[in-house]
Design a protein that fits this description.
Number of strands: 3
Strand order of the largest sheet: 1-2-3
Strand content: 5-15%
Largest sheet: 3 strands, antiparallel
Order of helices and strands: HEEE
Number of domains: 3
Radius of gyration: 26 Å
Helix content: 25-40%
Shape: elongated
Mean pLDDT: 78
Number of helices: 1
């Protein structure tokens, strides 16, 4: 026959294991589902369209020291048009749209057109 002492300590152990595993599950699920905001693969920077990046290399103390590295001319503008785009970058390929709504893809590091696009 099982004694009260055996039932009590076994039940306590089960509850302790259950609470530990439940806490561990919630901690791990919260950590993995938190957005990282370290890339810009969709319009607005994220599915939430927050226009924010967690990258820290550029901040308010050094942004004024930035200089253009390259520029790209779409060659399809008219006298009073301008390009105001929110490009996305996936695997170093920058995708944008010209003033006449032509899609273009460039290597974000060099501004050269990629030889072959994945897909």
């Amino acid at each position: 026959m099982i004694s009260f002492k055996e039932i009590f300590f076994t039940t306590k152990l089960h509850w302790a294991v259950f609470l530990f595993l439940t806490t561990l599950f919630f901690c791990l699920s919260c950590e993995s589902s938190a957005p990282k905001y370290k890339s810009w693969e969709v319009y607005g920077g994220s599915k939430e369209n927050i226009r924010y990046s967690a990258l820290t290399q550029i901040d308010t103390s050094n942004v004024k020291k930035l200089n253009p590295v390259w520029e790209f001319k779409t060659q399809d503008h008219e006298k009073f048009t301008q390009i105001q785009a929110n490009p996305i970058v996936i695997d170093t390929v920058l995708y944008g749209v010209s003033p006449k709504l032509k899609l273009f893809a460039l290597n974000a590091k060099t501004s050269k057109k990629p030889n072959k696009l994945k897909g």
